[in-house]
Design goal:
With 112 residues, the protein is mainly α. It folds into two domains: 40 residues; 66 residues, no CATH class. The chain contains four helices and no strands.
């Protein structure tokens, strides 16, 4: 079996150019959708992340009388039990994470 290396390299180069053109067309056509997907939050606790980003650790402490580090210690203690209870049962799942729910609960309890 004789291989024509020059022809093989030429086909691979043509394929690479074709793929590059296709990728550019896809970017032009669907780039806005990809950017929108990249803007979605990948965090496991988006509410806490938003509070920390907007007001910092001091704002977090004012909201619930715990610093972020103290809240993390509390979360580490109850994470397994709360997550198990949060995800059991039938029906639709809550869009709120167990960690965010704990944060909101402690915030409400502090203010009422």
């Amino acid at each position: 079996m004789v291989l024509n290396v020059t022809a093989m390299i030429g086909r691979l180069q043509d394929r690479a150019v074709s793929d590059e053109v296709f990728l550019q067309e896809c970017l032009n056509q669907y780039g806005h959708a990809a950017e929108r997907l990249n803007d979605t939050c990948d965090s496991s606790s988006p509410i806490i992340d938003h509070v920390l980003q907007e007001s910092g650790d001091e704002g977090f402490r004012v909201m619930m009388n715990f610093t972020a580090a103290e809240f993390q210690v509390l979360w580490d203690i109850i994470q397994v039990q709360l997550t198990a209870r949060w995800t059991e049962g039938r029906g639709s799942r809550s869009k709120t994470s167990p960690k965010d729910a704990l944060f909101m609960t402690l915030t409400v309890l502090k203010h009422y």
